[in-house]
Design goal:
This protein is α+β, with helices and mostly antiparallel strands. The protein has 5 helices and 8 strands; from the N terminus they run βαββαβαααββββ. The mean pLDDT is 95. It binds zinc ion. The site of zinc ion has 7 residues, from loops. It comes from Hydrogeniiclostridium mannosilyticum.
């Protein structure tokens, strides 16, 4: 059974580290946890959680607007060019709902399998990257890319960016 921990922040005195407050209640595979202790006099603890709870309670969610209009950029407002990769694979904005559901599903499977990499941690929280694999629309091969997530408390991942790079 993989070892999972919950990062728990304990208030001691008046000073609170913004990063530790964001980590409070977040779940990580023990070997892929942010560095602990996080700073001198960090009062946080890493508390073991039952893997059955991780399997049962972990969730992923995303806002549809991350896909339409942001990712597919149908009105060419954002001009980030991220839509070009998906269009070259045969996907258009009409696939936004499918892609959203697929990214959420794969991210959940990989998160509970511990198949993620830690990204940047700052006062907004701990980011993790998860690789997503989808078929080209014509079925000739598969392509993959990294989706970026923010770790929230109690096993929740919230999508930051559907396409964070290759
Ligand atoms: Zn701390």
């Amino acid at each position: 059974m993989p070892s999972w921990i919950q990062w728990t922040h304990h208030s001691e005195g008046k000073t609170h580290c913004d990063e530790c407050l964001k980590l409070d209640g977040c779940w990580f595979l023990e070997s892929k946890s942010p560095t602990w202790p996080h700073h001198p006099f960090c009062h946080c603890t890493l508390d073991p959680i039952d893997y059955a709870v991780v399997l049962m309670d972990a969730t992923t969610y995303s806002e549809y607007s991350k896909f339409d209009p942001y990712l597919f950029d149908p009105d060419n407002v954002y001009k980030h060019g991220k839509n070009r990769a998906f269009e070259s694979w045969g996907y258009t904005v009409t696939d936004a709902r499918w892609l959203q559901a697929e990214i959420e599903k794969q991210a959940l499977e990989k998160y509970i399998a511990g198949d993620y990499t830690l990204g940047k941690l700052n006062e907004h929280g701990q980011r993790i990257n998860i690789r997503v694999t989808i078929p080209r629309k014509d079925g000739t091969s598969e392509v993959s890319f990294m989706a970026g997530w923010m770790v929230k408390s109690n096993g929740k991942l919230k999508l930051n960016t559907p396409y964070g790079g290759k």
